Amino acid sequence: MSANHLGEKIREIRSGRGMTLKTLADRTGFSISFLSQLERGKSSATLESLKKISIAFGVNPSYFFDEDRSSNNQLLNIDQRMDEHNIYYKDLGTMVTHRDFTPLLVILKPSQTEGNLFTHKGQEFLYVIEGILTVRLENELYELGPTESIMLDSTRPHYWYNYTDSDVKILCVSSEVKNN
Description:
Layout: H1 3-16, H2 21-28, H3 32-39, H4 47-57, E1 80-82, E2 87-91, E3 101-108, E4 123-130, E5 133-137, E6 140-144, E7 149-153, E8 158-161, E9 168-175
Antiparallel strand pairs: 1-2, 2-3, 3-9, 4-7, 4-9, 5-6, 5-8
């Protein structure tokens, strides 16, 4: 996904909700300047920043990726991605519009070692399909291999990493964020 396309999607949802850049900055902790540059395609998003923005909007990160939501085709063609960071998402629950949780196929490319701990409302269940996933939960590190899983309270500071030279493919099931 290009930075311009991501910025357009962010501006579209922010404007559609009558939200100012200041309001979005307050909800995410990012500067107005950074958010403005992101919307104009002058800056790129990290997994962490995209997650914080999606939480502020009450949408799943997969919202920002192109996909035909009208299609009933549930084939796993991985085309929703953040090219700048080699992170791939596929929303596996597109047939249900009002969900309590969201299943995502996530692929972390080799050496995805950057990102700061963050929190959000809800819970996450991570199941490793392929590779070795490192999950940091506060001050603890967990290494998970194929068929291993972890469930965590997302209000605790956490982040996922790929410290290997191979892809890590995971199923992430997260509870939907409900903003009032």
